[in-house]
Write a structure and sequence with these properties.
Shape: flat
Order of helices and strands: HHHHHHHHHHHH
InterPro entries: Homeodomain-like_sf (IPR009057), HTH-type_TetR-like_transc_reg (IPR050109), HTH_TetR (IPR001647), Repressor_TetR_C (IPR004111), Tet_transcr_reg_TetR (IPR003012), Tet_transcr_reg_TetR-rel_C_sf (IPR036271)
Strand content: under 5%
Radius of gyration: 22 Å
Largest sheet: none
Helix content: 55-70%
Structural class: mainly alpha
Number of strands: 0
Number of helices: 12
Keywords: DNA-binding, Repressor, Transcription, Transcription regulation
Pfam family, one: TetR_N
Protein name: TetR/AcrR family transcriptional regulator C-terminal domain-containing protein
């Protein structure tokens, strides 16, 4: 047997799971913009056409990558305290996204929720329902939480650019914004997607929301009371 034949014999069979795991690992190193079917094929040491037996196109590859990342989120913990269970799982999702910073863009770019995202959201809705929230309240809770359910939040503006001395005219024209900017202290290494969404800000808002939902549950809130 030649060396080339031995190499082919020892080669790990290509399957969808291996393709997706390699794509996730490649995106972690190169970023999502550098990912291509050709580059992925090179990484797996196969011809590009071999990939299409497992993913139909680039969009299906991205769908699968989003699912692979979401499946890394810890399962719900046991216990009757629904707030603790939800909080723990959301912070697990955030840790996952910190490991794969490109995943936020991919998840947001999907035209609809992928199977793993749907399963995750279904499980989260079940946690709210098991915690005593009505279906009506849970519906509104899911809307209020939005992307926070998956561990990230969308900022109004991108403030992740290079820092520098504040604009001298800021305090004159926008005194309240200038005051807030002067007191802000954010950890740039803990952001998901840039901006002021660092770990403290994320957990601060998360805890406010969860406490508010629990208060509504205790009050027996329904959407019929909106008016």
């Amino acid at each position: 047997m030649t060396r080339q034949e031995a190499t082919r014999t020892q080669r790990i069979p290509l399957n969808r799971d291996r393709v997706l795991r390699a794509a996730v690992a490649l995106a972690d190193v190169t970023g999502i913009d550098a990912l291509s079917m050709r580059r992925l094929a090179q990484e797996l040491d196969v011809v590009p056409m071999a990939l299409y037996k497992h993913v139909a196109n680039k969009e299906e590859l991205l769908d699968g990558m989003a699912d692979a990342v979401v499946r890394e989120i810890d399962p719900p913990a046991a216990g009757p305290d629904w707030q603790r269970v939800v909080r723990g799982r959301i912070l697990s999702a955030r840790r996952v996204l910190l490991r794969h910073p490109w995943a936020v863009r991919v998840i947001e770019s999907r035209t609809g929720p992928t199977p793993a995202v749907l399963a995750y959201l279904d499980s989260m809705a079940g946690t709210f329902r098991d915690g005593g929230l009505s279906a009506d309240l849970t519906h509104h809770v899911m809307h209020a939480m939005g992307s926070r359910l998956l561990g990230f939040s969308q900022e109004l503006f991108d403030t992740s650019g290079p820092s520098g001395p504040p604009d001298p005219g800021l305090a004159t024209h926008y005194p309240n914004i200038a005051e807030l900017a002067a007191t802000a202290a954010h950890d740039g290494g803990s952001t998901v997607g840039g901006g002021c969404d660092d770990q403290f800000e994320f957990e601060f808002a998360l805890d406010l929301l969860l406490d508010g939902f629990e208060n509504l549950r205790r009050q027996g809130w329904t959407s019929a009371r909106k008016a």
